Amino acid sequence: MKVILISLLEMLLWLFLRATLDRAVDAALAVRDKINNPPAIEGNLDYKPKVSIGIKSGEIISENIGSVSLKHLYYSVIGDTFHTASRLQNAVKENQIIISDDCYKNVKESFKFKKQILLV
């Protein structure tokens, strides 16, 4: 489950780099809706994936980290913005999307929000 959450967070960060903050919030809503309404699968599967999403905009560093000679490279995203978004994501309940205060100020006219104070 944690692998899914990290890959979703990296996808949203990718959207931050290439789109507006409004589009990133739209993407978060779409991801949550898709996770909550998966396609029908044959068989009796009790597994129901859930997602929680934290959004923070700002500068990040993304690159392959590791050793070329050992053929052990992996893609990583680091920086205060990424870590803040990760802490936000870990602080909310499943199926919730939380955005930082500065992001809220930029998109508050585009979406309906429930006010929640969260100390991270």
What does this structure look like?
The protein is of the alpha+beta class and 120 residues long. The chain has one domain (2-38, 52-107): Alpha-Beta Plaits (2-Layer Sandwich), CATH 3.30.70. Helices cover 43% and strands 17% of the residues. The protein has four helices and four strands. The chain has helices at 2-18, 21-36, 80-91, 101-107, and strands at 53-55, 61-67, 72-78, 97-99. Strands 1-4 form a two-stranded parallel ribbon. A hairpin with a 4-residue loop joins strand 2 and strand 3 (72-78). Helix 1 (2-18) runs antiparallel to helix 2 (21-36). The protein is globular, with a radius of gyration of 16 Å. Residues 1-5 have low confidence and may be disordered.
Task: Describe what is shown at a glance.
The chain is α+β, with helices and mostly antiparallel strands and 120 residues long.
Layout of helices and strands:
Blueprint: H1 2-18, H2 21-36, E1 53-55, E2 61-67, E3 72-78, H3 80-91, E4 97-99, H4 101-107
Parallel strand pairs: 1-4
Antiparallel strand pairs: 2-3
Number of helices: 4
User: What form results from the Cα inertia axes?
Assistant: globular
Identify low-pLDDT runs.
Answer: 1-5
Q: What is the first-to-last residue Cα distance? A: 22 Å
Q: At the fourth CATH level, what is the homologous superfamily?
A: Nucleotide cyclase, GGDEF domain
- Structural class comes to alpha+beta
Determine and state the CATH class. Answer: Alpha Beta
Q: Could you give the count of β-strands? A: 4
N-to-C SSE string, H for helix and E for strand: HHEEEHEH
How many distinct domains? 1
Write down the overall mean pLDDT. 79
Q: Largest beta sheet: what is the strand line-up?
A: 1-4
CATH architecture descriptor text: 2-Layer Sandwich
Question: What share of the residues does DSSP label as strand, in percent?
Answer: 15-25%
Which fold name corresponds to the CATH topology? Alpha-Beta Plaits
What is the percent of helical residues?
40-55%
How would a textbook summarize the main sheet? 2 strands, parallel
**Gyration radius, in Å:** 16 Å
